[in-house]
C-alpha cells in the first residue's frame, strides 16, 4: 500500500499508513522504513524521509539507497553526494542501486553548473570530476556493464557536456537495448548535436532494433536542434526551414507506420517540430488530432505561434486554455507575456474598439501578471518576462516595481530592466542601472553591454554638441561610450558582431568619426548590419556621397544587401537628388526582389520625388501590387515637393476612396499643400481629419495651420492657435510668421516672432535677415 502511495504520490494516505505502522510498532523495520523513505521522497517531503532514516537503528544498503534516491528526487544532489561520502566512510558497501542514485546526484549538480572552456571543450568540471570518480568506483565493484548504471553514466556525462566520455561508455556495451540507444540520442540532443542524433536514429533503424515511441520523440527533437541553425526561406509568403521540415515529415510518417501517433509525448514532439520549422498550420493539425492534450502540448503550440509572429493566435489559444480549464503553468504565462510584447513591437495593429493597441495589450499583460501572482509562480523566469512585457508597453514604473521585488536578480533580470529603459528612451536611467548592477556584483554579459551602448547613444542624441578639434562632438556621452568600449574589450565581447555594430552607432552619435571609421576597418567579420550602421550614419549626417561610395565598396566585396541597406542608399539618393544613381539602385532593388517590400518601395518613391522625377514616381507607385499609407504618403509628398498642389490634394482624396486611412504624415502634407495654395478651408480639412481618423495633432500640424492662416493674413486665428498650442512655438513657426508678417505688413507680430526666434536660437541668421527686410519695407 505504501508503494502504491509512492507511485500515485498521495502523501495524505501515505501519512495515514505511516501512522498505522507506528501504532503497530513496525515503522523501525528496515523494509517498512525504506519503503516509507521512498514514498516521502517521491512526494518531495524530504524532511519526513530524513526523520525516518535517522530513526532507523542500523540502516542497511536498501534504506541508504532509499534516502539517497529521495534526496535526488527533490534535486538536492549536493546533499546526496555528501551523505554517500559519509556512509562510505562508515563502511557501507554500495550496490548498483547506490551508484545509480549518486550518478543521478551528479546530474543534479550538472544542471545548475556553468560550463567552462577547457582545451577547446566546454565542460562542467565539478560534476564531471565527481562523476568520473564514481564511474571508476563502479568499475572497481564490477558494475560497469550493468545496464542501469551505463544508462545513468551516459546521462551524467551528457549533462556534464562530456560527449566523448558518454560515447565511450556506450561503445563498450556488448548488446545495448533500445533504452540505452535512447539515452545516447538524448545525450546528443542535450548537447545540441542534432545531426549526430539523427545518425544514431539511422543506425537503430538499420540494425532493426525494436523502437519505442520515445525513440521518435528524441529523433524529432534532433530536428528541432538542426532547425535552430538552418536559414529561413520564404515560400508563398510563409517563412519556413525546409530541410528540417522534410526530415520531420519523414519521421512523422515512420512513427505513423509504427502506430505511435496516439502517444501524447510523440504528439507534443510533433507540434514542437512543426512549430520550430515554421509549419504552424501542420502543428495546429497535429494538436487538433490529439485525443489527450496535456499542458505540454498546449504550451508547444502557443510557443510556435509566438515564435513565428502569430501572437494574436497565441493569446487566443491561451484564452481557449482558460475556457477549457487547462491549468496554465509558468511556461504558459511566459509565452503569453512574450506574445503581448511582440504585439506591441510589430507594425500591424489589431482591430480594437476605441482603444490603442498598446493600452489593450497592457491590460492583457496586467491580467497575466495577476494570474501569475494568484498561481504563486512568480519565479525569476516569469518576473523577467513580466519586466520585458511592461517595458515593451511603455509601462516603465510597473517594470521597476516588479524588478525591485526580486530578491536576487540574475543577469537576465538586469538585462530585462535595461531593455525596458532603452525601449522607452530613458538612456540615463539605463546607464545608472548598468553601474548599479556591477556594484552589486552581477557580471554583465554581451547583451548587457549592448543595451548599455544603446543607452549611451540615446544620451548622446539629447546632449548638446561641442565644437572641438575641427569636429562636433558630444563629450560626456563619448566618455561614457569609451568606458563601455573598454568594458567590452576586457570581458572579451569586442568580437561579438552585435557589440561591434553598437559601438559603431555609439561613436557615430557621439561625433567621433575617426574612432568609428577605425573601428569599422578593424572588424575581422563585417556583417550586413555593420555596413548598414555605417550607411545609416552617413545618411544621418547628410554625407550622401560617402554613403554611395561605401555602397559601391559593399557591392565590390560581394556582400548581399538586405532591405535596410537599400533603404539607406535610397535616402542618400534623395539627399543627392541624383536621378542616375536612383535608377541604378532601383535596378538593384528589382534584381534582389525587394521591389514589393512596402518600406523599400516607399523609400524609392521618396527618392524619385526628391529627384523631381514625377514620371518615375508614378510608374513605381502604379507597379505596386499592394499600396499602404506609407507609399501613398510618398507619392503625395513627391507631388507636393514638385509644387503640383492640385495633384497633391487630388491624390489625398483618391487615397481615402481606396480605403487607406491617412496618418499624421498625410495630414502634414495636405496642410502644407493648402497653405501654399492659399486654401484657407484647409483648416476645416484639418479638423475633419483628426476627428474622423483619430489623429492626435503634433507640433508640425500646428505649424502648418499657423502658416496657412499667416499666408492668408488671418492673424486673429494665428494668435488663438499660438495661445492654445500645447507646445512652445519653435523657430520654424517663428520664421513662418516673420515671412507672413512681412507680406501683410504686421509689424507687431513680426517683432514678437523675431524676439521669440532670437531667444530660441540667437545665432540663427534667417530671423535677422527677415526682420531687416521687413524694416526696410516699412520705411519705404
From TrEMBL:
<feature type="repeat" description="PPR">
    <location>
        <begin position="527"/>
        <end position="557"/>
    </location>
</feature>
<dbReference type="Pfam" id="PF13041">
    <property type="entry name" value="PPR_2"/>
</dbReference>
<dbReference type="InterPro" id="IPR046960">
    <property type="entry name" value="PPR_At4g14850-like_plant"/>
</dbReference>
<feature type="repeat" description="PPR">
    <location>
        <begin position="177"/>
        <end position="211"/>
    </location>
</feature>
<dbReference type="InterPro" id="IPR011990">
    <property type="entry name" value="TPR-like_helical_dom_sf"/>
</dbReference>
<feature type="repeat" description="PPR">
    <location>
        <begin position="60"/>
        <end position="94"/>
    </location>
</feature>
<dbReference type="InterPro" id="IPR002885">
    <property type="entry name" value="PPR_rpt"/>
</dbReference>
<protein>
    <recommendedName>
        <fullName>Pentatricopeptide repeat-containing protein</fullName>
    </recommendedName>
</protein>
<dbReference type="GO" id="GO:0009451">
    <property type="term" value="P:RNA modification"/>
</dbReference>
<dbReference type="GO" id="GO:0048731">
    <property type="term" value="P:system development"/>
</dbReference>
<feature type="repeat" description="PPR">
    <location>
        <begin position="628"/>
        <end position="662"/>
    </location>
</feature>
<dbReference type="GO" id="GO:0003723">
    <property type="term" value="F:RNA binding"/>
</dbReference>
<feature type="repeat" description="PPR">
    <location>
        <begin position="410"/>
        <end position="444"/>
    </location>
</feature>
<keyword id="KW-0677">Repeat</keyword>
<dbReference type="Pfam" id="PF01535">
    <property type="entry name" value="PPR"/>
</dbReference>
<feature type="repeat" description="PPR">
    <location>
        <begin position="294"/>
        <end position="328"/>
    </location>
</feature>
Amino acid at each position: 500500500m505504501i508503494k502504491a502511495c509512492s507511485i500515485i504520490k498521495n502523501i495524505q494516505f501515505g501519512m495515514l499508513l505511516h501512522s498505522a505502522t507506528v501504532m503497530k510498532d513496525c515503522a523501525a523495520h528496515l523494509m517498512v522504513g525504506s519503503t516509507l523513505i521512498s514514498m516521502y521522497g517521491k512526494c518531495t517531503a524530504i524532511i519526513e524521509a530524513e526523520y525516518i532514516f535517522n530513526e532507523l537503528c542500523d540502516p542497511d544498503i536498501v534504506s541508504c539507497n532509499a534516502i539517497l534516491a529521495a534526496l535526488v528526487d527533490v534535486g538536492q544532489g549536493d546533499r546526496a553526494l555528501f551523505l554517500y561520502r559519509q556512509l562510505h566512510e562508515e563502511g557501507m558497501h554500495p550496490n548498483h542501486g547506490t551508484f545509480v542514485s549518486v550518478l543521478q546526484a551528479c546530474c543534479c549538480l550538472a544542471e545548475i553548473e556553468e560550463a567552462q572552456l577547457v582545451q577547446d571543450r566546454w565542460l562542467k568540471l565539478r560534476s564531471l570530476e565527481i562523476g568520473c570518480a564514481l564511474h571508476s568506483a563502479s568499475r572497481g565493484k564490477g558494475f560497469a556493464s550493468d545496464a542501469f548504471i551505463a544508462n545513468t553514466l551516459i546521462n551524467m556525462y551528457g549533462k556534464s557536456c562530456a560527449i566523448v566520455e558518454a560515447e565511450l561508455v556506450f561503445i563498450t556495451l556488448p548488446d545495448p537495448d533500445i533504452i540505452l540507444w535512447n539515452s545516447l540520442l538524448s545525450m546528443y540532443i542535450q548537447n545540441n548535436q542534432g545531426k549526430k542524433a539523427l545518425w544514431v536514429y539511422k543506425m537503430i533503424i538499420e540494425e532493426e532494433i525494436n523502437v519505442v515511441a520515445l525513440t521518435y520523440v528524441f529523433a524529432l527533437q534532433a530536428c528541432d536542434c538542426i532547425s535552430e541553425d538552418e536559414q529561413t526561406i520564404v515560400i508563398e509568403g510563409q517563412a519556413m526551414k525546409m530541410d528540417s521540415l522534410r526530415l520531420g515529415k519523414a519521421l512523422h510518417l515512420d512513427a505513423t507506420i509504427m502506430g505511435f501517433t496516439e502517444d501524447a509525448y510523440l504528439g507534443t514532439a510533433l507540434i514542437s517540430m512543426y512549430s520550430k520549422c515554421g509549419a504552424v498550420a501542420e502543428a495546429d493539425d497535429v494538436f487538433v488530432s490529439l485525443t489527450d492534450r496535456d499542458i505540454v502540448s498546449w504550451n508547444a503550440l502557443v510557443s510556435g505561434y509566438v515564435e513565428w509572429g502569430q501572437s494574436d493566435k497565441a493569446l487566443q489559444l491561451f484564452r481557449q486554455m482558460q475556457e477549457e480549464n487547462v491549468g496554465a503553468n509558468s511556461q504558459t504565462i511566459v509565452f503569453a507575456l512574450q506574445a503581448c510584447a511582440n504585439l506591441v513591437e510589430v507594425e500591424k495593429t489589431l482591430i480594437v474598439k476605441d482603444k490603442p493597441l498598446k493600452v489593450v495589450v497592457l491590460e492583457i499583460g496586467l491580467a497575466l501578471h495577476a494570474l501569475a501572482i494568484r498561481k504563486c509562480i512568480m519565479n525569476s523566469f516569469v518576473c523577467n518576462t513580466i519586466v520585458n512585457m511592461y517595458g515593451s508597453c511603455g509601462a516603465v514604473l510597473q517594470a521597476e516595481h516588479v524588478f525591485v521585488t526580486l530578491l536576487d536578480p540574475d543577469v537576465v533580470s538586469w538585462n530585462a530592466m535595461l531593455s525596458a529603459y532603452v525601449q522607452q528612451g530613458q538612456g540615463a536611467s539605463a546607464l545608472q542601472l548598468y553601474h548599479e548592477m556591477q556594484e552589486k556584483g552581477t557580471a554583465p554579459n554581451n547583451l548587457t553591454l549592448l543595451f548599455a551602448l544603446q543607452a549611451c547613444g540615446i544620451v548622446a542624441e539629447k546632449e548638446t554638441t561641442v565644437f572641438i578639434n575641427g569636429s562636433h562632438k558630444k563629450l560626456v556621452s563619448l566618455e561614457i561610450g569609451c568606458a563601455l568600449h573598454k568594458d567590452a574589450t576586457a570581458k572579451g565581447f569586442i568580437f561579438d558582431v552585435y557589440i561591434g555594430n553598437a559601438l559603431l552607432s555609439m561613436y557615430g552619435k557621439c561625433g567621433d568619426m575617426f574612432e568609428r571609421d577605425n573601428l569599422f576597418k578593424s572588424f575581422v567579420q563585417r556583417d550586413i548590419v555593420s555596413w548598414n550602421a555605417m550607411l545609416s550614419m552617413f545618411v544621418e549626417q547628410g554625407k550622401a556621397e560617402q554613403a554611395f561610395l561605401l555602397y559601391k565598396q559593399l557591392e565590390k566585396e560581394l556582400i548581399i544587401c538586405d532591405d535596410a541597406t537599400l533603404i539607406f542608399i535610397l535616402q542618400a539618393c534623395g539627399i543627392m537628388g541624383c536621378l542616375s544613381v536612383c535608377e541604378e539602385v532601383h535596378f538593384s532593388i528589382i534584381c534582389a526582389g525587394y521591389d514589393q517590400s512596402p518600406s523599400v518601395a516607399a523609400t524609392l518613391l521618396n527618392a524619385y520625388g526628391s529627384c523631381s522625377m514625377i514620371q518615375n514616381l508614378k510608374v513605381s507607385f502604379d507597379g505596386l501590387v499592394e499600396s499602404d499609407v506609407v507609399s501613398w504618403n510618398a507619392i503625395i509628398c513627391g507631388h507636393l515637393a514638385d509644387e503640383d498642389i492640385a495633384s497633391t490634394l487630388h491624390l489625398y482624396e483618391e487615397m481615402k476612396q481606396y480605403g487607406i486611412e491617412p496618418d499624421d504624415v498625410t495630414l502634414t502634407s495636405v496642410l502644407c499643400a493648402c497653405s501654399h495654395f492659399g486654401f484657407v478651408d484647409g483648416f476645416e480639412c484639418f479638423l475633419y481629419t483628426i476627428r474622423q481618423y483619430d489623429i492626435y495633432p503634433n507640433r508640425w500640424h500646428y505649424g502648418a495651420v499657423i502658416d496657412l492662416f499667416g499666408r492668408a493674413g488671418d492673424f486673429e486665428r494665428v494668435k488663438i492657435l499660438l495661445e492654445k498650442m500645447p507646445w512652445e512655438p519653435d523657430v520654424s513657426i517663428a520664421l513662418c510668421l516673420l515671412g507672413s508678417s512681412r507680406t501683410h505688413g504686421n509689424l507687431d507680430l513680426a517683432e514678437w516672432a523675431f524676439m521669440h526666434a532670437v531667444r530660441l536660437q540667437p545665432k540663427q541668421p534667417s530671423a535677422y535677415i527677415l526682420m531687416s527686410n521687413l524694416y526696410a519695407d516699412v520705411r519705404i
